[in-house]
Amino acid sequence: MKMVQRMAYVALIAVLLVIAGCSSGDAPPKQAFQDVMKNMEKLDSYSAKMSLGIDNLELPASTGQNGIDMTSVITAMMKGAKLDIKMVYAKESKRTDMELNLQLSGATITVPMIMTGEKLFLKLPALPMLQLPESAANKFVELDLKELAQQQGTAATTLDAAAQQQLVRELGAVVLKHFDEKTYFSSVKAKDAGVPEDVKAEQVVRFKLDESNYKSSVETIVNEMVPELLTVIASNESYLQALQKSKEDVEKMKTDWEADKTAKIDYLNQNVKVNELSVTGAINEDKMLAYQAGKVNVELTDKDTGGTTKVNVHYDMTYSDLNGNPKFLYEVPTDAVKFEDLMKQMQLPLGL
Q1: Contacts of 165 (CB under 8 A, 6+ apart)
Q2: Is the CB of residue 299 less than 8 Å from the CB of residue 309?
Q3: Residue 271, CB half-sphere, CA atoms under 13 Å: how many?
Q4: Which helix (H) or strand (E) holds 173?
Q5: What are the phi and psi torsion angles at 141 (to 5°)?
Q6: Which pLDDT belongs to residue 66?
């Protein structure tokens, strides 16, 4: 049932790939969203700010050394945590800059990142637990993902944001078509949706899955949506590379999924509770997504052990400089520390 459990989360989280949006005019919410997805595919650059907060996190108890319930310690620390992200993306240069600011237990941890094709640069925070050598202090660490993959005997991966976004959009289109407009989509007022006042929204649309419609969705998710998602992934080599899976891996996943759909339907109905899974999006006058917000409030119960996992998070994201000339957050470093050199200095396996 572990595979079923993982796929249950895949099926639920796949809904989040539907980045809700709409267009101006009187187009119905679902059709409006389809129009916006096509427009977003044309984006060559943008800036964005995202905030993600953990409202509640509960995991089954796990006793560690000295009889301490480490799960409780971790969940208590994570509850109320907040992650703020700044991002700048440019398709032509295949580059994405990000700044991650994690607020955790009263402290803020900042991690700058630069992604350029096959390389990732990140500046690690000076935390005592990391015990970074002086050579890496206040410097970016450079990871050559192609070389790293070759050393580990795996297929090389890239950080092509455009290809990854195309994957998200295509999977999102698959998800979208399996949910009817009347049951899951609605137009809402910007004020009621919490759209920031400085965001000019022509129309706002919401996708929502909750206790009232979840169980009626399960058969569609199991019988139609997940198999089609796996088919799409298996049919595109760039998607397989992005997910670090072979075609054979995905085909086997699909075969395993098809093996006993009745058991999977029963599992999702009996063990998974969706309090809310929603995405709200606003589109500006240019028919581009200007803002989105989402909530994930789900519970997973293992009937055999009685253990329960509860996840309640929210996020919001604002876009700017759509197809403009956004300024990158950092300069590509010329004095970055090689990842393999850092691992040697810290006497750690290269695979970490």
Answers
A1: none
A2: yes
A3: 25
A4: helix 161-177
A5: -100, 130
A6: 60
